[in-house]
Amino acid sequence: MLKAVILIGGPQKGTRFRPLTLDIPKPLFPIAGLPVIQHHIEACAIVEGLKEILLIGSYPASQFQQFVYNMQLRYNVTIKYLQEFTALGTAGGLFHFRDQIRYGTPDAFFLMNGDVCSDFPLKELYQFHKERPNGALVTIMAAEATKQQSLNFGCMVTDNDTHEVTHYVEKPSSYISTLINCGVYTFSLDIFPVIGEIFHLRQQDIYKSENGNDVKEAGFIQLEQEILTPLAGTGKMFAMHITNWWSQLKTGSSAIYANRHYLELYQTKHPERLSSCKEPTIIPDVHIDPTAVVDSTSVIGPNVSIGASVVIGPGVRIKESIVLDGAVIEERSLIMHSIIGRNSRVGKWARVEGTPCDPDPNKAFAKMENPPLFNNDGKLNPSITILGCSVSVPSETILLNSIVLPNKELSRSIKNEIIL
Ligand code: GTP
Question: Can you give the pTM of this predicted structure?
Fold first, then answer.
């Protein structure tokens, strides 16, 4: 029997995803028509023997109740949300809920960061884990990055023959290796005593310190720095190198990038989720929710997802964008490299356009860049345009490379601005 744990963070995480996370937790933001972590759940549900998925986070349980209920109905697997009393880091929650994870004595469990996107080759990862001749405590899914980009990730040096991780540094300050940690793992249950040791050392620190407030919460443990780094070179940690698409979901731009790739995966795995009709004109890949009303004279695609109850008027053109539930795009408007928030309205003959910052296709292994919001001169870096929820864009205006917070009624064109 196998289990999976998905780390979903909490309200204090996902800040770079604002304003899109102001009305929905980031793990539930729809990419290619499905909440981000539903892609994880789908990947788990097809693994033979996987019986339980535990979502660990510090969001109020009420925000995930409906989602968990829907997922239970849809997939033949037990799904539970376990709420941390405070953010416990990437390993603290595992330790806190260790009894739930160990219950039923699974052979192993997968751990998945809730903010990564991939086709998640879990069967292969488990097979690889099982095949290590002397047993493995952890197997890390690893991908190649460019030298410069690798500094933003957990970097590993591995033995070419045994695939053992001999050195691990999280976000190193100088170059170590282009092999990076994808935030997807298989763990053996024997990992718990290892995390337990760190937990007890932390507790001793608290007892020793004169003022307990000076030290971190005892339960706060960072998997990467406190567990993986010391495990490197012990013969217990391995890396499985993948060459498939993998990316992180950190900013709005990375959502557009992930949307494109999940839509592409649908071509082989779920063609029924892709729209293919003559009217409106569809340029693949496009996902349109069945409850959306799209005028037959509009042209949609490539790489567009349209949410539930969206209304798209005559002559509208949309490409490389995500339009969230309940949005209305009035006639002859153009939406490009943008995310249109829930229940937002774009008037007639308007133009909403952003600038993509995709990985350089000429650089092998380049990953999605997440440039800072502002450059050194304090100016907004060009990025996709994002409308928060319930924003109203008047007719005949242009919005370029801008971010608009929720509930704004714009009255003019804007360029490179954040509208608070
Ligand atoms: P950043 O570049 O700073 O975002 O670092 P990162 O990409 O390494 O991400 P981070 O380690 O912050 O988070 C990895 C995953 O773990 C994400 O899916 C987070 O939502 C999740 N996560 C982070 N901290 C916590 C935590 O305290 N509790 C839980 N349950 N999940 C967490």
Answer: 0.94
